[in-house]
Amino acid sequence: MALKGQQAQYQQALLNAQEHPSPWMIVWIALRNHKGALVGAGVFGFITFAVLVGPLFYPYDPAAIDLTVRNQGMSWVHWFGTDNLGRDTLARILSGGRVALSVGFTAMVLSLVLGTAIGLLAGYYKRLDGPLMRFTDFFLALPLLPLLLVIIVFFRDTLSSTFGQNMGIFLLVVVIIGITSWMQIARIVRSETLALKEREFVKAAVSVGTSGRHIVINHILPNILSPIMVSATLGIANAIITESTLSFLGLGFPSDFPTWGRLLFDGSNYIQINVERVIWPGLAISLTVLSINYMGDALRDAIDPRVRNK
Fold first, then answer.
1. What DSSP string describes 52-104?
2. Taking each helix axis from N to C terminus, what angle separates 225-248 and 144-163, rounded to the nearest 10 degrees?
3. Strand, coil or helix: what is 279?
4. Which of 4, 31, 36, 147 has a C-alpha 20 to 30 A away from that of 164?
């Protein structure tokens, strides 16, 4: 009897979940039924696993120089070939992938914190709306790429001497990408906050004397996590592209430090000798960004009821 009772409760729970699914269940169902999201998640998961775990099994050091095997093509010994100094291309791509993902996630978190904070303050506090939005418009009007180049030229040596060359450049790249990519997030959060501020549960909290800080953190912020999540996925792709662009221009990490953009730049000088040196880093950048964008599009469709109910 007890077993039958448990089975009946389980069946009832399944029926309730199907009739009144939670927001996370709705998102999961939509993502599961989105072919692009499944492909994107699979590709991104494979790339992430490869760059994190691959170096443990692939026997080559990305910095090891062997001039006797330089400019070789694909082979069973060096799967993706070697560069002009005999360094293994696959080992360098795996190392560059860790840099790209680290920069992407860290810069995304920074831009997310800045954009969310400014959007919440501008949307909830009317007296701050004008100044914060004009501040946002000012950043949107800036030519970002020249600004990035100027900041790197001025602060690269200082941070390198303080934190070490690689860590100093990493911090500099993350900070400048983060502080130049928060504006769209701020606008999205502000618009959502303005809408939620007029909802009954917020007005009820105001009527009983709840502080603005408590309302923003406990009532408004949890209800705008969905668009923030979408912005986060797209922010990772944007950060990876920006870092690759800076490295391709020679203003990112040092020339002996492998990143996908730097590998692409170095390979462009030897494209007539070994075209694979351009194909592999370019393919890594493209697949990573495309897979993230597919997941972001699917997440946006899952969250938007107008799209989901079609």
1. HHHHHHS---TT---GGGTT--S-SSSTT-B-TT--BHHHHHHHHHHHHHHHH
2. 80
3. helix
4. 147
Instruction: Give the residue from 253, 276, 287, 242 showing the smallest Cα distance to 80.
Output: 276
Tokens of 75: 């082979």
- DSSP type of residue 273: T
What is the pTM (predicted TM-score) of this model?
0.79
Sign of CA dihedral 268, 271, 275, 277: negative
Where residue 282 falls (left for φ over 0; alpha for ψ -120 to 50; beta otherwise) is: alpha
Residue type for 87, please?
A: R
**Separation CA 160–CA 171 (nearest Å):** 9
Which token pair is 303? 């969250």
Which stretch of 118-127, 168-177, 282-291 has the lowest confidence by average pLDDT? 168-177
pLDDT 10s digits, 202-219? 888 888 777 878 888 888
DSSP state of 20: S
Helix axes 225-248, 165-178, angle to 10 degrees: 130
Q: pLDDT (tens digit, 9 = 90+) per residue, 260-295?
A: 888 888 887 777 777 788 888 889 999 999 888 888
The CB-based long-range contact list for 163-172 (8 Å cut-off, 24+ gap) reads 165/254, 166/253, 166/254, 166/257, 169/252, 169/253, 169/254, 169/257, 170/99, 170/102, 170/103, 170/253
Burial category of 69 from C-beta neighbours within 10 Å (exposed 0-12, middle 13-18, buried 19 and up) = middle
